[in-house]
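TICKET #2291
ISSUE: user wants both folds in one file
ATTACHMENT 1:
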Amino acid sequence: MPIRHTEAIVLRTHRIGEADKVAIFLTRQLGKIQGLAKGARRPRSRFGSSLEIGTELELTFFEKESRELVSVDRCDIIRSGFSTARDPILACTLAYFADLVDSFAPDREPNAKLYRLMRASVASLGGGEPAPLTRYFEAWVLRLGGFYPTRETCSACDEQLASRGAHYVFSEHRLRCTRCARGASNGVSLSPAALRYLGHIWHQPPGELLPPDDKSVLVELSGLHRKLIAEQLDKELSSLQVLEDLIRLERSR
């Protein structure tokens, strides 16, 4: 049973038995894997706080071909998510990021871009209002999966979309300008400002992301992303609902 090492980010854990945990990791070299951490729930466990969501670590494990779960041996923390966990909104945002990656990343398919996205986005949490980063993360997860409309011209008339705005037609899975989309029975509209902000998203790392001048842009993108995600997963993620409920509660205080 060979021993292996890889950088990994904890996406989620759940209890198993009286003292153990199963953890889902996004790894740099192997993609998404699941591992059994024996004794992780004991008070003096050697894993300590290393299995918290969003923690980046050096993962050491053993693997057998006949088993789906790897056996976790060591988790040496590279960067802890503890500071994020102290803020309820940031903690829920982090949980949503992890839920998105877990939902979209296939098992055992390495994806260096997705790993870098998760790593950089977690590191950027707390650097400002989390809503722009959340829309950024959703857009890139969808784009890396091949589910995001990135065309800059109308699919019908080839006009530049940023000049008039666009309408994403779900039945066609494509963007049309507002003129060509007249009469479309379903879809989501994006203003020129929203399309310009998408251009900013595609060309900036998360640590350099600026909020839009008009906050309604984030509402537009949220509506599109919610429907694109639900379309691919056949459900809405409960972690997003928890995050939105918490934000509404904080605003009402």
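ATTACHMENT 2:
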Amino acid sequence: MKIKKDIHTNVLQESSTLRQVMERLNAGILGIVFLVDVNQVVKGVLTDGDVRRAILKGASTETIAADYMNQQFVYGKVSASHTENVALLNERVRHVPILDDSGRVVDFLSWAEMIRLPLMEPSLGGNELKYVSDCITTGWISSQGEYVRRFEQQFSDFLGGEHCVAVSNGTSALHLALKAVGVGPGDEVIVPDLTFAATANVVLHCGAKVICADVDPITWTLDPSKIERLITPNTKAIIPVHLYGHPCDMDPILEIGAKNNIYIIEDCAEAQGATYKGRRVGTLGHFGCFSFFSNKVITTGEGGMVSTANQELADKVKVLRDHGMTPGKRYWHDLPGFNYRMTNLQAAVGVAQMERVDKFLSRRIEIGQRYISNLSSIKGLVLPPNVPWAETVYWIFSLLVDERLTGIGRDELAKRLFDVRIENRPFFYPMHVQPPYLQDGDFEVSKRLSIQGLSLPSGNEILNEEIDRVCNAIELIVNGKQ
């Protein structure tokens, strides 16, 4: 159902004074008041600017407001389409009341509602600047610095005691995990067919072969029932991806790994804080790999983290991270490593972000719940998974658009949302159809999800009013009114 504005707060009788108008405007009602007659017919409008001009002309606060109202205002019609009414907004006309056939206001549009609504934005309102300034003031800006160690400890505490190694990005985290367990030429690694390309790219960078498995239709994540038939003597690892903030069904995956002596490397890039049967993702497999790109739950701009319960594996990751240099023997290299270190500057941002991680996660849940509440009655929208054994973090609120029921396809809905300045993203392309990973197989679920999936604005700082704006736009589009 469309969430309408509380119009009565913007409506005053034409006998009202400028003081009464100012009180309403001061209450924060989007900068406009509609003056109506006894029959509730709109006779004119007043904005902050109109009131200021009246005062400059000598009017007092007790002057009748109607003497200064704008009677030649632009208005939309309830019988017109939303697109037609929105077209009336511009840099000069920033408020458009929507009138019924009798001239009564039933809704209104505001220029503020047409401001671009991004898919994601970082939340940097904590101690980020303070800590980065400290790095610059002290000169500790590279990978040798106290903030790197502080960040790793915070993340370890967050995961309940795992060994944590900060790295340059989420892709390098995955690459290091694979290299630490010896994945190389001749090996095979099973990955979900629906994931971001980094999950598969790191396998190829190890010289190994990517084996794609279809995803589960309920959770959208790696389907355990599709894994066992893909295992060969060359299978070295499985990378379950906790997609769009929802955990994989890990127990059967872990059982398959244990039975076949296969390493389990969790891709947690999109799911920091999500839990599986009460345990946080990143603590279930041999490794957890996290990303801190600017659109993630917490960010360091770029950056990543490798977590593991195994001290020996953690030590190997640390060596590989730093050029393969042997600890305690500078410039001696037992391994051909990488420069995958995180800078102290990045870690300083991470420390400030981790100070607010619980707030971020709580807000993500609120965002997901508000979207679900607003969209659940729209026929043909399949809302994101949230099964009983998992706690999703709604990293990005994603849904499916079933054109058979909505009457509109995912791509057309996406285009029309962009038309009203609401950013969105389609789901990833299936791995198996892309040139570097081409392969045959049964991928019906991933193909369908890729065609139907759409992600909506979900940053930590998104306002409830902005979520409502997205939901209203979707409802209008699906109902053919926009």
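RESOLUTION: both attachments delivered.
EXTRA DETAIL ON ATTACHMENT 2: The two ends are 15 Å apart (CA to CA).
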